[in-house]
Amino acid sequence: MHRRTLGRTGLSVSEIGFGAVEIGMEYGIQVAGQPNQPSRQQAIEIVRTALDKGVNVVDTARGYGASESIIGEAIEDIRDDVVLMSKVSGIDESKTPDELTEFLRDSLETSLRELRTDVIDVYQIHSATMNMLAQGHVVECLRRFREEGKVRFLGATVYESDQAIAVIEEGQIDVLQIAFSMLAPGMSQAIIPKAVENGVAIVARSVLHRGVLTPKGAAGSAEEQRLHQAAKEYTFLFDAETQSLSHAALRFVLSNSDVSCALLGMDNMEQVQQNLGYGDIRPFSAEQIEQVLANPPDDPWSILPVATKGLASKS
Questions:
Q1: Whole-model pTM?
Q2: Does the domain made of 3-308 have the CATH classification 3.20.20.100?
């Protein structure tokens, strides 16, 4: 597993990270109504196997059901070998500053207990908004947590490009997590270069486009099937080395050397073996990348829940 540097944090991170939402709650495309979430013991084994295969980044959140608790049990005896990322979820911006401070501290302390650790390496604002960033209180609270030694670096997750720019320009946030896939590649043209100029690390999520770029995409909703079929038309990405959508999707994201880490969800051992079994992942050519950038499908985030539909349309 190759390592990359996580921006100005200086942390050495595996180019593939473990996205832990799927082990903590039901998530993703269900085929024939079959659940995706593994049992707790299976989930622990999945995490440990991924780490044994060279992954050293684990990304979770307070809002991912039992995920933090599972991660805590899985990594307790190897904590120092893991770059642990978590998030404060469900921030109510209508709260007073004192109420927000109490909420943020309670969320952090709960995460620390569940994760069985004294410090979180990258503590992120889950779905940061423009108003939240402009108001500044949330970032200031996280900065105080960093001064207390309970978090090492600050991060934020976004969908929209203007939110991404606000995170980059805020100045205290070290890691920016973006939705980035071969079906929604727009952030590579403006956001990623701007982040790099400012020393802000890029972590990519939704690399497999919420399951669309896996075999499950062919059995999903009408919109998931539409996007899955659109991706299959990218025949210029397939060769003797790359013969699956999942591999092409991962290879596309990692072709951008400014992406520090690509997060992949894994809810069974077959996915672990597949996602981490590609060996040396070579970048696509500049011509192939240009073809992807020139032909994105219409409304690539039509598959998002109603509350967040269209958020990535500006990226």
A1: 0.94
A2: yes
